[in-house]
Amino acid sequence: MNQQEQDLASNNESGHNQEGTNANWPVKVLTATSIIGDPIYNLQGEHIGKIKDIMVDLEGGCISYVILEYGGFLGMGGKLFAFPFKLIQLDQVNRRFTLDIDKELLNKEPGFDKSHWPATNSHGYAAGNSSSWGAFMGPNTGG
């Protein structure tokens, strides 16, 4: 165990929180409410939306997928997309999330109908394979 890990373990045992600018570095756990509404950028540094919601797998006890709200203005006219949580990475330095996706793909894909969220048992999305896009989001996709 290195010195930083020893310090963290000692702090955990003491019941006292760390202080300073990097008190929670590296980030390992966040509350759902602190993630919802956070911005998402692509790897080119373009803002592509925000985390609209988080879908929890009640049987497995983990996050199943994240809803990305793309486009629109003041919550109107945007599209919703579902992505497996594992595809979204935390950029700790810039305090935002990143997703490896081209903005043009989001422009041309329909997203899913806001009144019919994705089926929770359809998980065919494969990173980089737009032909599987709708399969992940389930049978209720479309705009």
UniProtKB/TrEMBL annotation:
<feature type="region of interest" description="Disordered">
    <location>
        <begin position="1"/>
        <end position="23"/>
    </location>
</feature>
<dbReference type="Pfam" id="PF05239">
    <property type="entry name" value="PRC"/>
</dbReference>
<dbReference type="InterPro" id="IPR011033">
    <property type="entry name" value="PRC_barrel-like_sf"/>
</dbReference>
<dbReference type="InterPro" id="IPR027275">
    <property type="entry name" value="PRC-brl_dom"/>
</dbReference>
<protein>
    <submittedName>
        <fullName>PRC-barrel domain containing protein</fullName>
    </submittedName>
</protein>
<feature type="domain" description="PRC-barrel">
    <location>
        <begin position="31"/>
        <end position="106"/>
    </location>
</feature>
